[in-house]
Amino acid sequence: MKHLGLISQKLAYAADDEPDIAMILDYAFQGIRIISWAFPLLYGAIWAGKNWQNVADYFIGQFE
Question: Could you tell me how far CA 16 lies from the centroid of its own chain?
């Protein structure tokens, strides 16, 4: 019976643990932060892929 009491107590705590507005905002800001990093990196990769010769000439010119 002692084990059933602990299990039911843990289930009650789990059911009571609803996400609050701070947690939801934290997830939203994490998503915005990921997008703010991913967009410039993807755009830069696409630009470098389309203009790879100019990028290569630029980096080769740095070492001459």
Answer: 27
Please tell me the pTM assigned to this model.
0.43
pLDDT tens per residue, range 8-57: 555 555 555 666 787 788 888 998 988 888 888 888 888 878 888 887 78
Collapsing DSSP to helix, strand or coil, 15 comes out as helix
As a whole number of Å, the end-to-end CA separation of the chain is: 80
Q: Is the dihedral of CA 44, 45, 46, 51 positive or negative?
A: positive
> What is the identity of the amino acid at 30?
Q
* Burial call 30-52: b when 16+ CB within 10 Å, e when fewer: eeeeeeeeeeeeeeeeeeeeeee
Q: Which spans in 17-51 are helix H?
A: 21-50
